[in-house]
Q: What sequence folds into this?
């Protein structure tokens, strides 16, 4: 088999000098920042686990139950963080996402609890679909309006969305005069997770195997593309390694979520409803992946695709790198800004579905301070506030880091004040590390 | 001057002001196919501003643009590209965070049948054109911020040349270059000229002007001093026009 492993003519000289680690990194073309973030995440997880072990006699962090909950809690912030990457990459900011989330949630709540049942009858199967479409459309429209003010009326994004932060929070109160709307439609509630809002053992295996097939396809496809244009290929061992690691993580996640059984009460309820005999040892019914987590993964894949494979994504980065050059290259930067903020609004709407479904209620306070966590997630995930740099997977890992810190501190019993101190410090420290990393890699 | 038919480009009576300051004041210049017209003048004479009216970056307050004798409306850079006008800006107008191929195809990405950006094909095309323009260029997979001034310049030049421009605007293309690279740009200009392109060249170095240009239009304080055939005047004459705004005896 003929293959080229060298990238540039002088690799021979380089390879002689570099150690096994850098050779490994070059061959696999793995992003060292990604590895750093994953390392930090694992450190946080293991740290909390052992702290709990030392203090309380048992570690509760690295348990299927906690990690499953962690994944569900990350979903809402993670979904919005993927959109915030685009906003920050183009040198803007969106402070309004938490309020937009609250406003969309309350409108969807009123729709499905008060408005639609009048016309369709309570429990009609279309209610949750119409409510969600309304929420998504509303979020997109608000985002597009913000984008229009920024791009075509020249108001800085900071001011437009700072205003939006107050306006939409107030509007959320006005819609229902501050009432809590509950309970939401039962199908709608599934989108928030919980025992019923998860796909179960079989569903998780199907998802996992599809993901593995996807990983293998991507590796093979990339290889054939490179060969077609006679670009240097990654060595076979590196491709194999990436494939094995990728599939290993996916299958590990499937085993993990399947290892978390339904609580006894829910099992009993379920068994009674379906007339199943519960055996003596109890019935082990797996949660599997929670639906909001699958939504987050789908959003992550779609957004990554958008950012790396479409013109839209390319223009987002170009605008972030040099707005003037983007304009001179014929990119309609204003219209792009509207689209980016509309997308951010859409994701805030989607996030509000997940958040209100998870609570099984909509309140006007839903999503308070979310904008800060969303921005922090994107920034911890390596999105540069200077513009032009950022990744979707980084933002999702950033959201996971933020949520891990919070969950971990709750588990070991830190009170809210200390949590705030820690989260704030970590944000600043993470950005400092990122800056060091960048100036070194230059 | 012999009649050469319709000019490729005619900028007729262009004026543009920024807050009361007349950056370009009723200037008329033209350009024929296979010709290099130098635009000369001090910093702030209005050369770049004038040329930005043609590349779509600015819009003139008054005056018209004619391309092949027909009135052309150029409201933005997209319009200019539609008329096959390519520009190499003084600032190079590169997105520093993107690699050479992404910059070269920015705004005109090659796409697969499904409408997705085809990075592999774009890189292959970039390798082809760079092999012609700058054979030493190797850094295809790094952001252009990691390139040297000359390498960045060659990316900007490649972008203008790749898309079969008919009208090329070069705003100080050799400012960041060493002697060897400057020579390569000179050869490129000769080659493009032979292909029948019209080139506006903004240039400070009087020797380059004498060597590369067929005609020179000199501007001072936003106004056109005059246009001369380069082979009919001396460099002293041109310097006189630039510095003193003085017409030489024979004007073109």
A:
């Amino acid at each position: 088999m003929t293959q080229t492993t060298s990238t540039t003519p002088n690799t021979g000289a380089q390879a002689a000098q570099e150690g096994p680690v850098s050779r490994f990194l070059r061959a696999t073309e793995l992003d060292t920042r990604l590895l750093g973030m994953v390392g930090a995440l694992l450190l946080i997880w293991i740290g909390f686990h052992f702290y709990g072990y030392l203090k309380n006699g048992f570690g509760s962090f690295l348990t299927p139950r906690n990690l499953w909950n962690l994944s569900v809690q990350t979903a809402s912030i993670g979904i919005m963080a993927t959109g915030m990457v685009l906003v920050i990459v183009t040198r803007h900011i969106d402070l309004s996402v938490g309020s937009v989330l609250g406003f969309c949630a309350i409108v969807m709540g009123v729709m499905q609890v008060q408005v639609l049942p009048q016309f369709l009858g309570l429990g009609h199967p279309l209610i949750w679909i119409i409510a969600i479409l309304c929420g998504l459309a509303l979020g997109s429209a608000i985002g597009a309006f913000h984008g229009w003010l920024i791009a075509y009326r020249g108001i800085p994004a900071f001011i437009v969305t700072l205003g939006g932060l107050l306006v939409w929070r107030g509007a959320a109160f006005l819609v229902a005069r501050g009432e809590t709307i509950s309970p939401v439609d039962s199908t709608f509630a599934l989108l928030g997770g919980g025992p019923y809002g998860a796909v179960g053992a079989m569903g998780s295996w199907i998802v996992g195997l599809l993901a593995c097939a996807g990983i293998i396809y991507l590796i093979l496809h990339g290889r054939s593309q490179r060969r077609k244009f006679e670009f240097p290929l990654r060595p076979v061992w590196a491709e194999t390694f990436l494939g094995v690691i990728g599939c290993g993580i996916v299958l590990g996640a499937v085993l993990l979520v399947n290892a978390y059984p339904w609580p006894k009460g829910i099992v009993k309820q379920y068994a009674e409803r379906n007339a199943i005999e519960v055996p003596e040892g109890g019935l082990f019914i797996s949660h599997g992946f929670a639906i909001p987590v699958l939504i987050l993964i789908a959003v992550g894949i779609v957004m990554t695709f958008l950012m790396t494979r479409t013109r839209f994504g390319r223009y987002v980065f170009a605008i972030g790198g040099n707005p003037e050059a983007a304009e001179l290259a014929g990119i309609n930067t204003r219209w792009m800004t509207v689209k980016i903020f509309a997308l951010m609004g859409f994701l805030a709407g989607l996030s509000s579905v997940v958040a209100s479904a998870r609570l099984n209620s909509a309140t006007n306070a839903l999503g308070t301070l979310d904008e800060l966590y969303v921005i922090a997630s994107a920034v911890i995930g390596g999105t540069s506030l200077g513009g032009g740099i950022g990744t979707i997977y980084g933002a999702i890992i950033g959201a996971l880091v933020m949520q891990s810190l919070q969950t971990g501190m709750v588990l070991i019993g830190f009170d809210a004040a200390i949590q705030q101190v820690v989260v704030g410090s970590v944000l600043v420290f993470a950005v400092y590390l990122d800056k060091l990393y960048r100036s070194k890699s230059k | 001057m012999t009649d050469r038919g319709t000019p490729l480009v005619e900028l007729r009576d262009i004026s543009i002001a920024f807050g009361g300051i007349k950056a370009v004041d009723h200037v008329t210049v033209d350009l024929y196919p296979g010709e290099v017209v130098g635009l000369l003048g001090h910093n702030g004479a209005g050369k770049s501003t004038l040329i930005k009216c043609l590349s779509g970056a600015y819009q003139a307050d008054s005056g018209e643009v004619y391309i092949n004798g027909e009135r052309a409306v150029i409201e933005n850079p997209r319009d200019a590209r539609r008329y096959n006008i390519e520009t190499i800006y003084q600032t190079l107008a590169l997105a520093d965070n993107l690699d050479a191929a992404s910059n070269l195809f920015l705004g005109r990405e090659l796409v697969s049948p499904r409408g997705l950006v085809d990075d592999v094909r774009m890189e292959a095309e970039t390798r082809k054109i760079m092999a012609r323009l700058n054979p030493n260029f190797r850094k295809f997979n790094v952001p252009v911020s990691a390139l040297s001034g000359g390498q960045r310049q060659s990316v900007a030049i490649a972008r203008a040349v790749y898309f079969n421009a008919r009208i090329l605007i070069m705003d100080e293309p050799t400012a960041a270059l060493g002697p060897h690279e400057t020579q390569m740009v000179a050869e490129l200009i000769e080659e493009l000229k032979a292909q029948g392109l019209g080139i506006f060249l903004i240039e400070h170095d009087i020797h380059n002007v004498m060597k590369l240009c067929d005609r020179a239009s000199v501007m001072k304080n936003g106004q056109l001093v005059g246009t001369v055939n380069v082979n009919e005047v001396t460099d002293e004459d041109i310097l006189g026009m630039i510095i003193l705004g003085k017409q030489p005896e024979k004007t073109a």
In short: DSSP finds eight helices and ten strands in chain B. Chain B touches chain A at residues 55, 57, 76-78, 81, 87, 89, 91-98, 102, 106-109, 111, 115-117, 120-121, 123-124, 138, 141, 146 (CB under 8 Å). The helical segments of chain B are 47-55, 77-82, 100-104, 119-133, 149-162, 179-194, 206-212, 235-244.
